Structure formats: structure tokens, C-alpha cells
Amino acid sequence: MKKKMIIAIIASMCLMTACAGNTISEASGSVKTNATTAASGSDVLAENTVSDIKEDDTANMTVTDGQDIVIDEGGEYVIGGSAQNSTIYVDADGEEEVRLVLNGLNISNEAAPCIYVKSADKVVISTTSDDNSLNVSGTFAEDEENADAVIFAKDDLEFDGSGTLTVTSTDKGISCNDSIKISSGTIKADAASDGIHANDTLTVDDGELIINAAEGLESTVVTVNGGSIEIAASDDGINAAQKSDSYSPLFEMNGGSVTIVMASGDTDGIDVNGDIRINGGTIDITGQSAFDYDGSAEFNGGTIIINGEQVDTIQNQMFGNPGQMGNMSGGEFDGSMPPGGEEMQPPEGMEEMEPPEGMEGMQPPEGMEGGPGRGGMRGPGQRQ
User: Scanning 15, 106, 187, 259, which has the fewest C-beta atoms within 10 Å of its C-beta?
Assistant: First the structure.
């Protein structure tokens, strides 16, 4: 496969003066000079483009301080080295697939993504056995796409490989406007906002995720089919919310393991603005609110552990703070805290409340005396 390489040529006189630090390693793909910080936007990237060179082999690239790499054709690109203020841009045809093989890649930026996918059918980010580290330490520069993640993509992303990718961010770790699929490899994300975010769907088939963030995983549809996921979060561990008009919010787990440790306060281990389906795997949540969902819940298989205690229902914790409403198991509030928590007490001044006048002797409808999930109808979230 032929690949285009555009090398920015600096006048030879500059090499003896202020531009001496901006040498460019030979590579396949497009390499542009950027003497300050990695910049976003095609207008900036078009500067200093003066020649085309074509090669047939897989591209091998080395990042350099203050220089951006632009990949404008489909294919495989092996990228390594260490650099500051350098962005890898993917700006290929919308029907082409690009594979980025991270081979001991280390980039530290001040205000721009380390990898920015502007256009492609799909970009696969693969890791070799070497460790890879991507970091943004400052406030992200504003652009029309709101590129606020260390890895930011407008199109589909997939992650695989045998190595480790560590992402550190002052905002989002990994963010995609479409869908993200994780097939293998290890991803460590430390982010002030979302660890991994996808607008449409986020699917984990295998691999290892270790996330420390305000929200661990966020998408409209979050599906876990396998792998190991460890999340420490201060807002929601996993959040399935309406981020896309193409899907309805859903969390589905079919295998693998998810371990979530929540900070105190108004937090939820798994927060779904729609339905929950747990068909297999193990979910282990530590926190005062394990599940918060707006739709239905199905517990068809697998294991759920809340605060060290195995349970057989998906309890809907509408409000998680002591002194407020308690668990809803099977559609009925029982006035208690989640397993492992303390028993809830009624709010001050409401201990002796009486039912409204005329309703003292009312009985529940026939067949529902036990309440949903208690000898009558089976409530939502109870195991089949």
C-alpha cells in the first residue's frame, strides 16, 4: 500500500540559528513543524507543507518535540519515541481504516490531545509489549470540536494489543463522538472528568481497564462482555446516559468482572438513564448507592456483590444519603441502606406521622398484599 509523506523543509540557514531544535525524523505519513505547542485545526497544520514522498512499506514514525504528525491515508503506522507538545493527527478518507501501533510511545502535552482523530472510517490503537504514556497537563485549548481528551476521536475507535497504555488528563482521558470497542491490552486512565467516554456505544470484550476518574465509563450504551475493569470514581462508576439520539441508555453485562469503589457523597456505582441487564460476570461495588436506574432491571445470571455482601436483586437506590429514601428492591422501598450500610432513620419530626384522613384502613389490591417481589408480583431487578 502506498502512503504519502509530506516533509516540512526548513531553510538550511535556520538550522544554524533559532530552528536548530526542529529536526524531523523521516517517516511515512505527514509530518509538520510546530515550534511551540501541538496545535489543532487544518489551517495550522497546512503550514510549511512543500513536498510529497511516497513509500510502499508500513510506516515507522518517531515523535519529536514541538512537531505534529499528520496521517492522511489508511494503513498501519508504528509510532514510538518521546516528545513534548506533539499531536498525532489522523485525517484520512472517511472510508479508510487506520491502525496506530504504539511502540514505546510517550507524549506529554500542555494544551492539546496527544492523538486526535479528525476523519477515518475507524482507527485501531494497538499496543506492543512496551509501555506507552500519553499526558495532558494543562487546560485544553478551545477548538470547534471541543477536543478535551488525551485521545480524542470524531469517528470509531478500537483498542487492542499486548501492552499497556497509560492516559493522564486534566479533563477526559479517552473520548469518542461515535463508538469505542476494547478488545485486548491494558488501559490505565487517570482523569479529572470521564476516564473513557463514547457518545454512542462503549463495548469491552476483553483486556484490563484501571480507571481513576470522576466518571469511569460513560456512553449511551455500555456493554461488558469480558475482561477486567477496576474503577475508582467520585461521581458515577459507570454512566449510561442519553449522549446519542441513535440509542437508548442501557447497561448490559454478559461476562468479565467489574469492580467499582465509590467516593462518599451523592454518587452511584452504576447510573443508567434507562435499563440494566445483567446476564453474567461479576459486579463488585463498594459505596452507599450501587445502582440508580430509570427504566427496568433484569438479573438473569452472574454475581452481584455490594459492600462485601452477595445479593440476588438489583436494588434501585433513588437517593443515597443517610436520612433520605432507602433502597428500592423489586420496586418497593424498604427504608434501609444498601448491604453493609447502616439502617436508615426517618427524618427528624416525621417519626409519628399518621396516614391522611380517610386512608387509615385502606388495604392493598387483591393479590398484591405482599408488595411487588414479596409473595405477589415479582418486582424489577429480582433474579429470574
Answer: 15
Q: Which tens digit of pLDDT belongs to each residue from 109-137?
A: 999 999 999 999 999 999 998 899 999 99
Residue 369 falls within a domain, yes or no? no
CA atoms of 206 and 162, how far apart (whole Å): 12
**Residue bearing cell 453485562:** 253
Whole-angstrom distance, CA of residue 235 vs CA of residue 264: 9
pLDDT-derived band at 384, boundaries 50, 70, 90? low
Total of domains in the chain: 1
Which set of grid coordinates corresponds to residue 175? 473520548
pLDDT classification of 202: cutoffs 50, 70, 90: very high
> What distance in Å separates the CA atoms of residue 278 and residue 299, rounded to the nearest whole number?
5
Pair 49, 74: CB distance under 8 Å: no
Q: What is the pLDDT of residues 133-178, one digit of tens each?
A: 999 999 999 888 899 999 999 999 999 999 999 999 999 999 999 9
Dist. CA 67–CA 30, nearest whole Å:
11
pLDDT for 359 beyond 60: no
Asked, for residue 365, whether it belongs to a domain, the answer is no
User: Does residue 166 lie within any of the structural domains?
Assistant: yes
Radius of gyration of the chain (CA): 25
| Residue 85 zone, left/alpha/beta (φ > 0; ψ -120 to 50; rest) | left
Structural domain harbouring 112: 56-333
Rounded distance between C-alpha atoms, residue 240 and residue 247, angstroms: 11
- Structural domain includes residue 113: yes
Q: State residue 291's pLDDT score.
A: 97
